[in-house]
Amino acid sequence: MTIARSVADVLADHVVLEYEAIDRMYLNVYVPHLQAVGGVLGYLRVHRGQRFASTTAVAPMTEAFVRNVQEFVASEGIDLITFEKGQRKDDVTQAYLRKFKKTEGVLYVGKAQEKARVMRTERRRCSRTGATYPWIVESTAMVNQYYFYCVDEDFGPFFLKFCSYFPYNAKLCINGHEYLKRQLAKRRVAFEALDNGIKSCADPQLLQRLSDGLTAEKIDRLLRKWLRRLPHPFPARDRAAGYRYQLSILQAEFSLTQVLDHPVTGRIFFEEVIRENLDIGRPSQVSLVFDRRINRRTPGRFRTRVITDGVVPSLHVDYRKSRIKQYHKEGEALRTETTINDTRDFGIGRRIENLAELREIGFAANRRLLDVERIGHDCFIGEAAFQDMQKPVVVADQRAAALPKLSMSFQGAPKPVEE
Q: What is the pLDDT of residues 342-365, one digit of tens each?
């Protein structure tokens, strides 16, 4: 076996499976009308008919929601776990998944005190009359959060987390690779899992079509389905009046997985790529990778980070609040992954309806990073070969003179943007 010496060699000759997929997505679940003080005033004064706007009026809703959670746990015969500080929720979930035999259902409910954005009431005093009055403000507080860890027939494991305090914002976390595994299994297509990914598949074209089919509409349907099954903070009359949950993108990971024929191929290749791309985080390079104009006013730190987790190296490139991570996954595949933490870094809204446009940006960034590495790495190899041509060699005790030295100059090259 020969080890591939360049990015082009690896991508052309050693990739046995390649696919793009949404990886993890972390979504805000919120009622749009209740995210600002003005909307809360309208809810309390107009919808609920309160003479004075005060969040004490929604205290019975909070008590009813907590009571419904406890009744749900009892009726379903599932565990209610209080997470300890520093406890890994994923470890707890994996233990429950190993014992779960159904195709769909609730694994358990977790409870943890966490800081959350809330609406609360302050008592203020009128400077003219001295009378006190309630005043609603945005604030943060340490409140109970309820994690519903579930398994869906189409999406596999996911969780939905509710804040127990008004306006009861929630978070939805899904995994696109778990969705793919479920879809392949439902179609009885043979595949081999690779931790959080796919190592092999009997129908790679179908795999990519299924990945492309994970749309905003399907994610929204998942939310609606489980909101009907789980305890809901808002009563039916509120939902009928338009106080309904919507989705926005808090964090989205877009991955390119390239499974290699031999583990050593990827490991040696990737370590060499890291060495030759330590400047990939410079503004001029980041501009190429993310296809965004960068100037001195662009926020964020421009740097290249090489992180070793145990013995697995990874390359990180940052742009504003987003980043690209590249690593050798499970000794089997090259994983290039763009994580977008703020869609407005790319001039796109946060609503789930923007997912299609956002995925194009994420997948294109992965490809451009590989293109930059291909150009930089292959040029390095070409330069080494060029220098070898200018050195004398000895073959069978015969000395061959070197080629005459050549000089090359490049004029008019653009000056890189300074960090």
A: 999 888 999 999 999 999 999 998
Total-model pTM: 0.80
Cα pseudo-dihedral 94, 100, 105, 109, rounded to 10? -50
Please indicate, yes or no, whether residues 255 and 377 belong to a single structural domain of this protein: yes
User: What is the rounded CA–CA span in Å between residue 381 and residue 174?
Assistant: 42
Residues 80 and 100 in one domain: yes
Measured CA to CA, the distance from residue 158 to residue 160 in angstroms comes to: 7
Q: Let me know whether 108 and 155 are in one domain.
A: yes
Summarised one tens digit per residue, pLDDT across range 182-202 is 999 999 999 999 888 999 999
Whether residue 230 sits in one domain with residue 282: no
Decide: 332 and 259 in contact? Cβ < 8 Å.
yes
Whether 123 maps to a domain, the answer reads no
Same domain, residue pair 89 and 222: yes
User: What is the number of residues in the chain?
Assistant: 419
| Cα distance between residue 273 and residue 267, in whole Å | 10
Residue 402 lies in a domain: no
Q: Are the CB atoms for 189 and 264 separated by under 8 Å?
A: no
Same domain, yes or no, for 109 and 231? yes
Asked whether the predicted pLDDT for residue 267 surpasses 80, the reply is: no
- pLDDT digit string, tens, across residues 78-134: 999 999 888 889 899 999 999 998 999 999 999 999 998 888 888 888 778 878 777
First to last CA, the chain: 42
Whether residue 300 contacts residue 290, with contact meaning beta carbons closer than 8 Å, is answered with no
| Co-location of 256 and 279 in the same domain | yes
Cα–Cα separations (whole angstroms), residue 90 to 28, 93, 173, 175, 308: 20, 5, 12, 13, 22
Tell me, yes or no, whether 308 lies in a domain: yes
Q: Closest Cα to residue 324, out of 367, 355, 295, 360?
A: 367
Interatomic CA distance for residues 330 and 335, integer angstroms:
10
For the purposes of burial, counting CB atoms within 10 Å of the CB of 332, is it exposed (0-12), middle (13-18) or buried (19 or more)?
buried
The answer to whether the beta carbons of residues 273 and 336 sit under 8 Å apart is no
Q: Name the 3-class secondary structure at 277.
A: coil
Number of separate domains in the chain: 2
Maximum separation of any 2 CA atoms in the chain, in Å: 108
The one-letter amino acid code at 380 reads F
Query: In the block, which residue shows the tokens 């992180």?
Result: 307
Its domain, for residue 60, covers: 32-114+143-168+215-244
